[in-house]
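INFO batch 0412 | record 1 of 1 | parsing
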Amino acid sequence: MVSNYYTLRHIALDLDRRLAGAILREAYSQERNQLILTFDPSLPQSTEEPPYSLIVSCEPSANFCFLRRRQTRAKKNTIDLFPLCTGSRVRSITMHPSDRQMFIHLESSSQLLLQFFGSSANVVCADVNGNVIDAFLCRDIEVNKSIGDGSVRPSTAFDSPLEIKTYLHSFPDGNLGRLLKSAFPTFGSLLVREILVRTNLDSIQNVAELSTRRLADLCDAVLQLLRELHLPPDSRIYIEGEHPLEFSIVPLQLFGNHQYHRYDSIHEGIGRFVGTVRKDRAFVDARQALLHRLEREYDRTTRALEKISQDLETMSRADFYEKMGKLLMANLHRVEKGMKSVEIEDVFESSSPIVKISLEANLTPSRNAERYFDKAKKSRRSAEETMERKVSLRRQAEMIRKLRSALEEASTTEALHACTEEYRDQFEKIGIRIDRKSQIKSEPEVPFRAFRVTGGFEVWAGKSSANNDLLTMKYAKPNDLWFHARGAGGSHVILRAGTGKGELSKRAIEEAASVAAYYSKMKNAKSVPVAMTERKYVRKPKGSPIGTVVIERERVLFVEPKLPSPST
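INFO prediction complete | emitting tokens
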């Protein structure tokens, strides 16, 4: 209700009492869509009236204004506004009789018009004839267009129950909620709901459905609320737990079951409400950002677990390789160098089937057998590492579920702070940094393709030639590993040192190289040569084309073009 007509009307009355005769010393902005008007007291050297600042918000979702002791102006990023008005003395401050417009009349024959019209909110400066000279927000403002003097009568004004009944009876099939909004546009949705709660009526009921008694009660409730709205404001903030629900200048049965805080000053009440809502919104946004990040990490982790389970089903070929090696060793006399395959009886099977064993023609028979033993050993090691990774991912999924549950239980800023402090290490393990000032920060989205490889190390891949330059020359650090498909166009790829656990493993390096192979013009090859070096040995000659670099101390890896699993 901070931008309700009656709230603004009481503010205008109070401002006129406090600021008539005061000098508008400054008009400036240091925050998006917010104007600050600073007034000096009406009498020089006055000790009773301190300097005031009127805070005016034209934020589409949060129109409001309130008076406070002089606002401290920032030393930078501020802009002066309305130079024709500053230095002028205030003659009076008035409210439009039926619209959310407040007039600040100045002795310099100019005036400021504060318009609280939601997404069209603005503050405009007009001359003595009401013609627009300047505007805070240039939202299709037509210079020299007349703003009027605010002297028109309300479109609807009812002084008795009979007048209200007559109006309502003229729309027998009319919806009560819509009719009340139409008859009393200054009420707004909140006060229309309040009337319906006070009379125990439903907004979708039609006038024809009401008995004479119910209609009389409705008319009396409307007039009673109007009387309350014209009394000195009973400023209060209704709350639910620690969260603000609504500011009001009258008691609301709509929130009869909720607690509230009362304030002596309407300005103090609005200022406190605005500040609390902003803090509450920051809390909600911070918690939601963390929950969103956790949900994303959980999805990546579960996808990785599914892929690992599938990989394990096809990975256990160690026994097959070992058997091939043993069969070759037992039949060396039948194998000659230069053969590409050999058919041997499988004595390890009861039916002794004939199996065809592939050979490397350039290897001796015994070296071919050793090759199969090596493949068996590598397959077992890979399966063991994958099982360890599976256990690690299961622990990570459980940790994320625990963090998510703790966040959902945090219902206040203080509780959220305690939660992030308690689980700081766990958050950081999954890439969410909580700074020491308790400001929650999710790691920013980088402008590159991002992956994780074995050990939890981050891999970034460029998206274009310009993006490659940005990645290599701006984002990569000297000790990061740099990759690029050798002899072919493609992405620059960075394996970020220090972003995972322990030292970089051979497998992590090969996985990063596979990313570079995948994002190259040799993507469809079975094996791709990839150049690797440390970032400090990569330089960009002056005048070289976008994406072109020169590297030193390179090492070439032959890898399969592929991407790591979603959360490897």
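INFO post-check: The chain has four domains: 5-135, 161-262, 297-442, 449-559.
INFO record closed
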